Amino acid sequence: MNRVTVKINGSEYNLVGEEREEYLHKVAGCVDKKILDILNKNKRLSISDASVLTAVNVVDEMLKCECKNELLNKELEEFKKSQKALQIQVEDLKKHIKNLEEYNAELQNKLENSKSGEYLKQYEEENKRLSEELELLRESAKQYLQEKNQLKSENKELKFQVQSSKYKIMDLQNRLIENQIDLVKIKKQENPLLNVK
Predict the structure, then answer these.
(1) Can you list the pairs that 139-148 forms with residues at least 24 positions away whose Cβ atoms lie under 8 Å?
(2) Tell me, what CATH number does 173's domain have?
(3) What is the tens place of the pLDDT at every residue in 86-108?
(4) pTM of this prediction?
């Protein structure tokens, strides 16, 4: 557990958390900056009002990040489903190519054992047709593999975006907690009756 003393809007606060000290200072710095920005935009606001507006802004950002995170997770699931379907298609194409190659080998054996010119002509036509079909299948398999690689790349990017969103949500949750602490302290400072034990 780390304990640090930070300054927010000129007042010192003790923060306690499992995060590193640098992170806690960063959170306090963000809260301080947001409060100062709001106070600079409207000089007539009290510190308490500025703290409430800061909390509202932070919660708004957090909720938007959560929505974005949910959308990214849904997109990620869709990409995973597409990738799985493409993998099945690639496997089917590989099986089909293997069957065609076996059939081609069988025809070549028949050709070697046959001395008939007519059979040779039929074989050559059949072999040509099969070669063309095999080439088309290879092109299709190549295209599916390219799509699979593209989906893998997009999947990796989505995972990175989801992880970034998670960190942003954690950061916003910490800011919200700090603002709530700040608000309570400000209320205590403004209303001495709350400090009576």
Answers:
(1) 140/93, 141/90, 141/93, 141/94, 141/97, 144/86, 144/89, 144/90, 144/93, 145/90, 147/86, 148/83, 148/86, 148/87, 148/90
(2) 1.10.287.1490
(3) 999 999 999 999 999 999 888 88
(4) 0.47
